[in-house]
């Protein structure tokens, strides 16, 4: 097992389930024997503001904070958030993003327009971008709230961890009444 420190940023808009996603990822990595640091959620999570959670793991991790150019992975619940946090991605890092667009306040008020072609623009910087309609997959699984687990399923492509480890972490974190739906959401994200 490679114990080099790796950095994952989970970014989105308040209320999208980034905390559950970071708990799931943290549990998976702890169970795999890594030292794991998960930051608190930053941002106006109660008001639909920008939210970021840091997950760092390795042999020994001292700080939960990820600086510009240090993220191995950016997992984004919303397209503009992926673009906003792009400067934090390492040169060979991977973005996994939902293509959903949630208008920020300047767009809602009419002061700005939502940028077009964000996936192409991010790829144009050399970033590896895996973009999919996680909301449609979550709805297919049974709930639009399962976007977070669809994203974790997609992220699992880039981790050298057996699916059973992800399932075990899900069983530990997700309430029993939502477990089957979340397992379906994970599988849809993984196999999209």
List the helices and strands and how they pair.
Elements: E1 6-13, H1 18-31, E2 35-38, E3 42-43, E4 50-58, E5 71-76, H2 79-85, E6 89-98, H3 105-108, H4 118-124, E7 128-132, H5 134-141, H6 147-155, H7 163-173, H8 176-191
Parallel strand pairs: 1-5, 5-6, 6-7
Antiparallel strand pairs: 1-4, 2-4, 3-4
Helix pairs in contact: 1-6, 1-7, 5-6, 5-8, 6-8
Explain this structure.
- The chain is an alpha/beta fold.
- It has one domain (6-191): Pyruvate-ferredoxin Oxidoreductase, domain 3.
- It contains 8 helices and 7 strands.
- The chain has helices at residues 18-31, 79-85, 105-108, 118-124, 134-141, 147-155, 163-173, 176-191, and strands at residues 6-13, 35-38, 42-43, 50-58, 71-76, 89-98, 128-132.
- Strands 1, 2, 3, 4, 5, 6 and 7 form a 7-stranded mixed sheet that branches.
- Strand 3 (42-43) and strand 4 form a beta hairpin.
- Helix 1 packs across helix 7 and helix 5 packs across helix 6.
The DSSP helix count reads 8
CATH architecture: 3-Layer(aba) Sandwich
Could you state the CATH homologous superfamily?
Pyruvate-ferredoxin oxidoreductase, PFOR, domain III
Q: How many distinct folded domains?
A: 1
Shape: globular
> Percentage of helical residues?
25-40%
Q: Spans of 5+ residues with little confidence (pLDDT < 50)? A: none
Beta-strand proportion: 15-25%
The main sheet comes to:
7 strands, mixed
End-to-end Cα distance? 27 Å
CATH topology: Pyruvate-ferredoxin Oxidoreductase, domain 3
CATH class: Alpha Beta
Order of helices and strands: EHEEEEHEHHEHHHH
Helix and strand content put the structural class at alpha/beta
| Mean pLDDT over the full residue set | 91
Number of strands: 7
